[in-house]
Amino acid sequence: MTATSAPYPIGTPGVPWGDAERALWLSRQVRHRSYIEDVVRRVERLGERFDVAEYGQLSYPPDQYRLYAVRSRDWRDDLPVVLVTGGVHGYETSGVHGALQFLEERAADYAGRINLLVAPCVSPWAYERIHRWNANAIDPNRSFRENSPAEESAALMRLIAPLRGRFLVHVDLHETTDTDETEFRPALAARDGKTSEPDIIPDGFYLVDDTENPQPEFQRAIIEAVSKVTHIAPADEKGQIIGSDVVSPGVIHYAMRKLGLCAGITGARYTTTTEVYPDSPRATPEQCNAAQVTAACAAIDFALR
């Protein structure tokens, strides 16, 4: 879809937000769903087969959130480590539910072959409010850097720090939605005192590879597997997807570490960010979740060949 330009309802065009604008924005955020019921209850049930650990807490008064990671019970120091992350952007639903579904249905297939670490919902406040940012109007997926301003990002970096150098694969599960154009990009422009130019949301699944560590065969293997589950996003008339050149069907490049993206935190040989399009008339929520599961499995399968 293509969005139309309109002034964002908070702030003065061209002027970055101050405390008053951020407070007004926060006052308008509404809880739509439950992290406890949707995520924590499923994680607790996974404790029957995996080790479940709390790796941090978030405090956004009056709300408190415990952050959970799930890891292989048969952890072995001689095995490579695979990280799967979901819900870095809380509104990207299939990232969270795809990570949980992967744990419930497929993770056991890799027992004894990898050490698996999964953080299924990195941003629970945003998950509940179906939002991109945290309660401080900060995007966690631009904040994976030293002295991060986002506690969600800092907590995940602390979790993986002891394992750096051992990661083989990191799959970060995301979505690109129509609300990226109708809400989140206009809000970003308003927050930063910039203008928002309408763009086209790609209809279909695509991947983001790392400019500094491109792995084209790895990305192609994931695209091939996911294409059997849901459709792959085509390039636009400029040969791009969301402003980046398409380097192979359904694949673009971002500079992961420079941009502070989650997929850049591990130093893994194989990294990717998935992008599912849940608003497509050609995709159901079940397909979106399945695409995330398929991507994670295809990534691990390729790396283990």
Automatic annotation (TrEMBL):
<keyword id="KW-0862">Zinc</keyword>
<keyword id="KW-0479">Metal-binding</keyword>
<protein>
    <submittedName>
        <fullName>M14 family metallocarboxypeptidase</fullName>
    </submittedName>
</protein>
<keyword id="KW-0378">Hydrolase</keyword>
<dbReference type="InterPro" id="IPR055438">
    <property type="entry name" value="AstE_AspA_cat"/>
</dbReference>
<dbReference type="Pfam" id="PF24827">
    <property type="entry name" value="AstE_AspA_cat"/>
</dbReference>
<feature type="domain" description="Peptidase M14">
    <location>
        <begin position="31"/>
        <end position="305"/>
    </location>
</feature>
<comment type="similarity">
    <text>Belongs to the peptidase M14 family.</text>
</comment>
<dbReference type="InterPro" id="IPR000834">
    <property type="entry name" value="Peptidase_M14"/>
</dbReference>
